[in-house]
């Protein structure tokens, strides 16, 4: 009987479910195909008596709609194309590794510098990037008319104020002043941070860069302590056997002052482009803290002495990685940044 067949197939359709596209296709062919069950039933229907047609017609249409609805539902909701692919895939193939990020080369170098000084008992100190004239210049013994205060070097933000003009700090020596103002020696600290100078951007100069400065203040600190500390630092950073030399220099906040060169890390002193064939490259400025600076910060310059130094992280990174163009550091080009993934992590 047609009615029985419909009842039986209705149950089958209701019970049917699959997540596999090929099984769903089988279902479609079986019920909805051109030679499928629904076609057969409709053919049989033509032969039934007129009375039966009246009752069965509706049942039959509902049955057909059920089959179509079930098919649509499964197609849209249950059968994920992917699941078919996964089932068919070669599971022995290697996975699709996902990329982990890389540390920025400047972050790598900064961290290495910090770690070396940590071993010597230096802590990390931080301060604001927006500074007043006092902390960036005056307390550091810069005379009023010193060219470094000039608009060409400093990004001034605001005129006046209790502690002078407001500007973007030009070095992290300002953090040393803040530290000295806040307490009394002994101090043993390094100050990493971003600094700003009003320079046209080129391969060799940028309007901002990064520094690590350091301060060591205690009783009886001498230039010999400065030399030994920086010598140790260089051996740790660039390897044993790296030579250092000090050249007299001038900074308003240190006396005596020096610039420190190291034997070229690229050619080991034989002469190359990096060291301009001199065998030496300059890496930092340093000196004994000027007594005026100590007095400006209410520290007894008769009792205490100490040394300070400052270096550019970009310069150190350049000597480590031979990065010729400073602009690369701030362009965020993934092809550049990717290269430092495995170094120094
Ligand atoms: N502050 C100096 C600069 O930015 C570096 C320096 C720090 C030199 C401490 C000597 C002592 O160039």
UniProtKB/TrEMBL annotation:
It is an enzyme of class 6 (ligase). The keyword Repeat does not apply. Its EC number is 6.1.1.20. Its main location: cytoplasm. Gene3D superfamilies: Bira Bifunctional Protein, Domain 2. Its cofactor is Mg(2+). One of its GO terms (molecular function) is ATP binding. The keyword Cytoplasm applies. It is found in: Cytoplasm. GO terms for biological process: phenylalanyl-tRNA aminoacylation. HAMAP family: Phe_tRNA_synth_alpha1. This is Phenylalanine--tRNA ligase alpha subunit. It comes from Pedobacter psychroterrae. The gene is pheS.
């Amino acid at each position: 009987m047609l009615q029985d067949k419909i009842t039986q197939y209705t149950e089958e359709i209701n019970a049917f479910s699959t997540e596999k596209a090929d099984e769903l296709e089988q279902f479609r062919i079986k019920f909805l195909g051109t030679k499928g069950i629904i076609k057969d039933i409709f053919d049989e229907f033509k032969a039934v008596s007129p009375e039966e047609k009246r009752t069965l017609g509706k049942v039959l249409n509902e049955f057909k709609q059920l089959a179509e609805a079930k098919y649509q539902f499964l197609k849209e909701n249950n059968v994920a194309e992917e699941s078919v692919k996964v089932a068919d895939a070669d599971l022995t193939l290697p996975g699709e590794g996902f990329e982990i990020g890389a540390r920025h080369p400047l972050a790598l170098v900064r961290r290495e510098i910090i770690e070396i000084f940590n071993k010597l008992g230096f802590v990390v100190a931080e301060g604001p990037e927006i500074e007043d004239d006092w902390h960036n210049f005056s307390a550091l013994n810069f005379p009023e008319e010193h060219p470094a205060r000039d608009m060409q070097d400093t990004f001034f933000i605001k005129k006046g104020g209790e502690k002078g003009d407001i500007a973007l700090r030009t070095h992290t020596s300002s953090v040393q002043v803040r530290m000295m103002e806040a307490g009394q020696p002994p101090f043993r600290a390094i100050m990493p941070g971003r600094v700003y100078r009003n320079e046209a951007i080129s391969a060799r100069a940028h309007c901002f860069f990064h520094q690590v400065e350091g301060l060591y203040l205690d009783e009886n600190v001498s230039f010999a302590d400065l030399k030994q500390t920086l010598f140790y630092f260089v051996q740790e950073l660039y390897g044993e056997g790296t030579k250092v030399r000090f050249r007299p220099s001038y900074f308003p906040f240190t006396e005596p002052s020096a610039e420190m060169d190291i034997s070229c890390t690229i050619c080991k002193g034989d002469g190359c482009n990096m060291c301009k064939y001199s065998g030496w490259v300059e890496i930092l400025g340093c000196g004994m803290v000027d007594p005026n600076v100590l007095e400006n910060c209410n520290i007894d310059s008769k009792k205490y002495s100490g040394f300070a130094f400052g270096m550019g992280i970009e310069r150190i990174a350049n000597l480590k990685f031979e990065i010729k163009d400073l602009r690369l550091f701030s362009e965020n080009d993934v092809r550049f940044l990717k290269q430092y993934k495995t170094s120094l992590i």
